[in-house]
Amino acid sequence: MTPTGDSPDDRAYVPRHSVEGPPGAPVLVLGPSLGTTMDLWRPQLPELTRSWRVLRYDLPGHGGSPVPDGPVTVAGLADGVAALLDRLGVAAAAYAGVSLGGAVGTMLALRAPGRVASLVLVCTSPRFGEPGAWRERAALVRRDGVAPVARTAADRWFTPSFTGAEPYVEMLRGTDPEGYAGCCDALAGFDVTARLPEVSAPTLVIAGAQDGPTPPAGHADRLAEGIPDAGLVVVEGAAHLAGAERPGPVTEAITAHLDRTWKGLGR
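User: That's the sequence. What structure does it adopt?
Assistant: Structure tokens below.
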């Protein structure tokens, strides 16, 4: 991936990011899902920025982050978040992530446990199915662009009754094909099922009851069972992008968890 040059570790990919909320408040990092941007978290911002210094970032080739110039791995993305925290002078932070963003948070908690003070895993998994399916999707996007996956995104991400899908699908349409494909490759190589007992951060798992890509059974439940003392909240009437479809219950679950676990100084 493209090095940033001004990162403490020039080998790490440091993504485009945005910081909002009270200066000096404890820091909360928000990670987006494959095909979306940091604006996926916009419904949660008014509440989260009351008490936390919120750091959002874009995945490679998504939003304003540059396209990678080499292989993308979840470990590399986690290292990029760590490098971003270094750049901002943040020793420890809470982390909440959706889908691929949740995988990045899990990996960060494994690779740098002292840096993750609290963890929220939203509609994600310790393993996203068979690697071959992700490699096939990566090949499709490299060949035909993101249009084929954008056409079916609303059905993957939301329940049939949700009427607000278009802004999120537009995020996918604006994603660079190589950035999207690289992140598919990262998901193909991700499996931390056996390492979940090593996660030491206080963890909440949030699932959408109607989530197709990462349903509660076989995904959220494995996270909650594998991570010591993790809690599990299943949100009814929500699919894969639960925080967009049912922002109220998801925001309430996140703030309740963080109120209990993350009130330390951000810097």
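The two ends are 28 Å apart (CA to CA).
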